[in-house]
TrEMBL record:
Signal sequence interval, chain numbering: none
Gene Ontology MF: a single term: transaminase activity
Keyword Metal-binding listed: no
Residue ranges of every copy of the Aminotransferase class V domain listed in the record: 66-367
Annotated keywords: Aminotransferase, Pyridoxal phosphate, Transferase
Official protein name in the record: Aminotransferase class V-fold PLP-dependent enzyme
Amino acid sequence: MLIEGITPLTTQKSKFSLPEGIHYLNCATRAPLSKSVEQAGHDAISRDANPFGLRPDDFFSGSVRVRALFSELINNPDPDRIAIVPSVSYAMAVVARNLPNKPGIRAGQTIVLLDSEFPSDVYAWDRVSKELGLRIKTVPMPDEFPRGARWNEQILEAIGPDTALVLAPPVHWMYGIQFDLEAIGKRAREVGAWFAVDGTQAIGALPFDLTACQPDVVVCAGYKWLMGPYSLGLAYFSPAFDEGIPLEEGWMNRLDSNQFHRLMDYQPIYRPKAYRYNVGEQSHFIQMPMLEASLTQLLDWQPERIQSYTEELTKNAWPALEQLGCQVEPINGSKGRSHHLVGLWLPKYADALAVQQALLAQKVAVSPRARALRIAPHVYNTPADIDALVGVLTEVL
């Protein structure tokens, strides 16, 4: 689908170091580093080889740039609401740590989750739900096709006056089904529930508008669709968390912490907004420049253009695979499938792991998830990659 007024992307394969003959359709597991991100890492290592002249402000400046870039990507008007985190589980632990202090929290309320959600978005609530007497309400995935529209309806139906927290992603991490975050956020606000979004499998490749869905928390790991390094992520925290309790009491999160000559004058006051939730050693002198490079590149590519590119790239594959007995969620706006991450349901007789092995033998990389293959293309892919995928599946199925 071409977007009016936006120049479509052409293949960006030359900007990556992927070997010829490799058909990497697995960005949802881990993104390959572009040459610019790779170079940023090499340059950072070279700088670290000689730390002479390092200034106190250098411990903070890299994250300032990254927070601004990420804010532009998600339409966040206030970069000070972005924290540097090491993982999704870290940010979700912050939410769990502060849930006991949420206004109106009481025993018997529910935490609304999606069926088959990623473990980091599930394990976080076990302890706090027991301590507070909360119930976990999991919204099941519908059995019948198409699934997206009904699943979205069921989520809204599950949110009520007894809801304390709602967790939903832009797309399901296994199947690529989209969720209408604007409608979910609106419903959560109506009942006074917190709304948390794990954007890891979407932000960077799918347009995301913070001001439209108004979540309380958004977290995104950096090594998937942000196309940056591992063990570095970003999290947005709304004003609901401004006086919250962090997981760590890091010295860099306190007021005037860039004045190294006064660090022994212990400071009880945190830097404002999301700074208190920064992970310790937030400077990440090697990884931060890499994430800055990847975010800069994504803002040039634009998520809208990435969606259009991956849609055009794969549009002929789905009808061909459906002829083999596979199923794909149809396009249905914010309630249908995404284009950068698609769950391909295999016929009932097919073994997903065996199919994956057959694909790997022909150097085609995808991920089996339950009875589906998760196919996750990006701008480094070409029609040859899709042809290889369809060719192997035609032979196997």
